[in-house]
Amino acid sequence: MSLSKMCSIVLAVFLLTGLMACSNSASNSGSSPQNAGSTGGQNSQDNKSADAEKESVKLRYMVWGSPNEKKAVEDYSKKYMEMNPHVTIEVIHVPNNDYATKVATMVAGNDEPDLAYMSEGQAYELAEQGKLYNVFEQLDVDPDFNLDNYAPNVWYEWEPGKALGRRIGIGAMGMYYNTDVFEKAGIPPLPRNPEETMNWDEFVELAKKLTVDQNGKTALDPDFDHTKIKQYGLMFETWWANYLPLVLSNGGGYATEDGTKFGLSEPEAYEVIQQMADLINVHHVAPSPVQLKSLPNLATSLQSGKAAMAFGGNWLTLDLSAAGAKFGYGLYPKMKENAAVILASPVVIFNSTKNIEEAWKFYKFAADPAASVGIYADGLSIPVLKDWLTDEQKLSQWAVNDKHPDGYVDVMIKPLFDENTKPGPADLLKNYSKIDTIVTPALEEVWLGNKSAQDAMNEIKPRVEELMIGEYKWSR
Amino acid sequence: MWMGILFALPAILGFFIFTLGPMLASFVLTFTDLKLINPIKFIGLDNYVQLFRGSDGLFYKSLSTTFQYVFMSVPLNILFAFCVALLMNQQIKGRAFFRTVFYLPTIVPVFASSMIWIWILDPDLGLLNNVLKTLGLPTSMWIYSSETVIPSLVLMGLWVTGNTMIIFLAGLQGIPNHLYEALEVDGGNKLHKLLYITVPLMSPTIFFNLVLGFVGGFQIFAEAYIMTQGGPNNSSLFIVFYLYREAFQLSNMAYASTVAWFLFIIILVFTFVIFKTSRMWVYYEGEGNK
């Protein structure tokens, strides 16, 4: 009896302290945003003299990205706050893996940020729900906003005349090569002039010449041992931006007929994919996706000479320059015509923002490399503003420096204005993320040499086409 | 009486608010088209129709991979853990040390152990293939080939059977010694001891581990998420990974809830069947008195 009484007293004490602890922490966490709010208010009060008639404004800006990118965003946000003391910008950095879920839960909880990076699929979905601001409305309001100032293919139109935003920065694909390896083998640099691009046979020949086994024999040698490769002629990842330039170059596409028919099951496309898979499984000049997993990443492999050439995005420049690699750029080989892709995700403004004007001003500011030349000059990204891509003087501020070896402008920038440069399926195809869950695993079998591209693509054609409901049309 | 309920209230409330409530909510959601960011609309049984039609070709694939995994891994795990427990129950030197060693992998976070296994199973540079090569044995693509990915994951799973082993060990220690002595007096050997005393008396423990094994096996997720991303060619697209992808990557919350409920029913049916058949093979000491 007394024992059970004691027990209940002890339990009661636990319960009470537990409750107290809970309520304590609750009140603590409750008070902290208030504190933050009040200090913010004080700051703006201090600055009121300078910024007299403007009311203080707080913008929440949600971004993903590497530590480098995060710092760049914070830097230009700080700069903006210094220029506009009445504005406070809170940068919310969310790791890439959790990003989509975080956005979804914030939207579900009516707690949207004012501005945010967003994946293409999610952005379109939210725009169709009416959650995102149509930035083209500013065309009528803001005399400084002129679409001619922007590079082509950067505005995400979910309906004609309605854009949910611009690309954060531009992404482009090209070839990279290790200049040391090329010099040692006595091979001239990769072509950067669109009139001199290699055809496929020349490219395969070159890749063979650059693939070396442990006995020093190249893939052209009959005694070449493909099980012991020391240096691969070419290395490439297998997601869409790597194969699409070649598919486009052959007159094919990911989707046809306005996004209702599967393009990869057409001969123009699957032949190219087959030829790329043959680089791995027939010519043995490129590592398979499995081997890729055990090799260092693209940049490190290229730098260390494990790979002589690589297909890669402009953002590889950041890692390669940071590591002090000796590298150069070249244009993709061509099947029939030169072609290229443009990629990267949008940055959006939520309709729920209380300060559309302030959000828009910051939105424009963030696009301007003058505010944050760092992410561009370091090699991570390409600006969306046209004069930064064409004006020699402006190019010299970011794209012509020791971090961007010769050829960057020819390979990554100039093709952006070519009419054969197209956005990828992630940008244009409705329902793409769902479609991708079928296409990517099927292609995997092709890269591994288990199936022909023709069979693999035709097999999934009915299932893919069931999901194909059209594409978004971009006017510029 | 009411005092007791009062003290149990935190647990009871916790169950109602954080377990039962969300479960029921998710059941209601299976009749909607919730994607988190749209206004909810009731769409009747459409999610179930979509599920059973399997038009994306992935649902049935995920069912088959999960079943393959469960039927390979659960019996093997139990057999393996049982054998280890038998060994750990012997009077040997350093027994405590061995017990610790066999239990240790269980407390390694699954993320860490998965990373280690990615290295071990690497076809070109991995430890396992290199050992096989040195011994002149054929090598395998392990988790990188659609034929071997599930057996590889099963093999990995054997490494972390410590919990099952501990439960077996506890069961073994509960077997009274006089039974073995009686059998010795009657001239039985070690095999007889195992077959006529250990296994029958352990059957409730085996039963318990079997149920837990099935429940856990159907929910395999982390390995697929960390090591294979469901690949190659969806060969390790386990049902929970499929569910996760629908919910958190494609934000089809309602459809994912439907998948979750379907999984719940599968597990329920399996547990029910095991319970029903248990009368035939599980021996409870107390039962003879009835």
Automatic annotation (TrEMBL), chain A:
Pfam families: SBP_bac_1 (PF01547). Residues 26-37 have a biased composition (Low complexity). Residues 26-52 are annotated as: Disordered. SUPFAM superfamilies: Periplasmic binding protein-like II. InterPro entries: Bact_solute-bd_prot1, SBP. Residues 1-26 form the signal peptide. Keywords: Signal. This is ABC transporter substrate-binding protein. The lineage of its organism: Bacteria, Bacillati, Bacillota, Bacilli, Bacillales.
Automatic annotation (TrEMBL), chain B:
InterPro entries: ABC_transporter_permease, MetI-like, MetI-like_sf. Residues 63-274 form the ABC transmembrane type-1 domain. The chain crosses the membrane at residues 67-88, 100-120, 149-173, 194-222, 253-275. GO terms for biological process: transmembrane transport. The keyword Transport applies. It is found in: Cell membrane. GO terms for cellular component: plasma membrane. Keywords: ATP-binding, Cell membrane, Membrane, Nucleotide-binding, Transmembrane, Transmembrane helix, Transport. Belongs to the binding-protein-dependent transport system permease family. This is Sugar ABC transporter ATP-binding protein. It comes from Paenibacillus abyssi.
